[in-house]
Structure formats: C-alpha cells, structure tokens
Amino acid sequence: MVHTRQNQSTLSKSQKKRFVDAVLAVKRTGRYDEFVRTHIDFYTGDGDGGLRVAHMAPSFFPWHRAFLLEFERALQRVDPSVTVPYWDWTVDRTPGASLWGADFLGGNGRRSDRRVTTGPFAAAHGAWTVKEAVTDGDFLMRDFGRPQDPVQLPGKDELAAAMQEPVYDAAPYNSLAPAGFRNKLEGWPVRRGDRTWYNHNRVHRWVSGHMLGAGSVNDPVFWLHHAFVDLCWSRWRERHPDAAPYLPATPPGIGDSQRHRVLALDETMPPWDTPVRAMLDHRSLYRYA
Is the pTM of this model over 0.90? Predict the structure, then answer.
C-alpha cells in the first residue's frame, strides 16, 4: 500500500505523538541503535579505502532512500499509521519552528554542554540514552547555528542552484565532483580545505551536536532531514525527465581511481543487497504531500 509522507509543519498533535511514540518504541527494542551503527559502518569518505555507498558517492540518494524505508517499516510495525515526515529547512529555518517543539523533537541544547533538555528525547525522561558514537555524554546534544562558528540553514536560492544541475553526477564521483546534482545537494566544499558547506551538509552543521558526523542518526531529526533530501531528489527527476536518472551507468574501468569505490546503476548496495536501480522510483511505495 502506498503511504504519504507529510511536511512536518502540517502534522496534527496526534500525528506528532504517534511518530514520537513509535520512535521511542523502536529505541526500547535496541533496533534504533542498530540504525545508528549501520550509518556509522557505511560512512566512508574519499580518503578511506574501499567502497563508498552512503556518502561522497553517487549512491548517496538511493542508499539513504533504502535506509529511510527500512526505518519507516520499523516504525510501521509499531504503528501502521506512522510515516516519516519531512523538514523543509528552506522554510522552517529558526529554533522556533514547530519541529523543535516540546511535543515533537524538543529544542536546542543548553549552552554549557549542548544537552537537549526539552521534548521526549531529552535525557531527563530516561528514554533516549545515546549508546553509539558517544562523545561528551550519553545524552542527545544540539547546538543550533554553532554560535562559536556561526552557520545558517540553506535557503531557497542555494537549493535551487543544486536543483538546476542538468546531470545527476559527474566524475570523479566523489566529494570533489565539479558538477552534478548529487554533489551540489549533498553539499561538500568545492575545494579541499574550504570551510563552506552547502545544502544537506550545512543542515547537519546547523543542528550540530550529534548531527555532526557518522553518528548523526542519534538525533531523530536525521530522518526528517533525509526525507526532505529524498523529496528533493524526486523533484529533481521530475524537472529533468530527459537526464540519466543515475550515473555512472557502468562501473568505472581499469585504471580509474573510482574503480571498486563507487556503484554503477545495476550494482547492489550493502547491507541490503538492493540494486541501485530498485531505488530510483518511490511512487509504488510512498508519495509526498
């Protein structure tokens, strides 16, 4: 059955509670921490050896689509009515936005230790102990806007610049790809050593705390952020119907630095053994409101 993912700003009080209750139920079973560990295990960078599938690679979008679907199905085993909402960070751009309410995801961390003290995921409630990628403490941390090194959420113009890219991805298919929608939306600096981040990456940096780095799944806002990233991919395909839906179409050849490091269209993504091609179209699974 096709279900609908909504903008978080349109959720009713009941829908918010159902989503939160399902997330907490998945956490209680230990399954949530397995999702955190999966993301950590597959967060491989340009400078690391081996295959890259989750980040800095063409499979960034299909891998996270499969990851989101697996999480959504875990929630629906608790409550079939629940779907993952999306956060349009070009619109809801302040700490006062509805998703940060005490009845939903809770707010910013306190200045002294970045500890989240409001909402259902605050450590004081005893239901959200961080067990993977523990840093300064086992409590959820946020640091909106990184006051010590200020950053703003991406705006409509920045997202539009990525959406205008006419090709899906471009060689060398990593964080330094000079063109292509994937790298412009994923948001890596255009030059090594540059401190400017864009779109998807800048959202992680704005939330900060646990949203920085491979353990970002520790913050439930991860799922709302990536649902919007997934929606942007869907919209890009609608706007560029004649573009190749995924590149590279065939594996990089002998002598190519990306050989065995990135996936081609008909190769399969670990850990699910799911073909990239199977994740190109979501319309038989879910839609966006």
Answer: yes
Q: Please, are residues 228 and 236 in contact by the beta-carbon 8 Å criterion? A: no
Helices (H) and strands (E) in the chain, counts: 7, 4
Band of pLDDT at residue 105, cut at 50, 70 and 90:
very high
Full set of structural domains in the chain with CATH: 3-288 (1.10.1280.10)
User: d(Cα 271, Cα 254) in Å, to the nearest integer?
Assistant: 25
Residue type, 115: R
Q: Which helix (H) or strand (E) element contains residue 288?
A: strand 286-288
pLDDT at 195: 65
What is residue 232's three-state secondary structure?
A: helix
Mean pLDDT, residues 11-36 taken together: 98
CA 258/CA 81 separation, integer angstroms: 42
Long-range contacts: 211-216, Cβ < 8 Å, 24+?
211/142, 213/43, 213/133, 214/39, 214/40, 214/43, 214/133, 215/36, 215/39, 215/40, 215/132, 215/133, 216/39
| Segment holding 287, helix H or strand E | strand 286-288
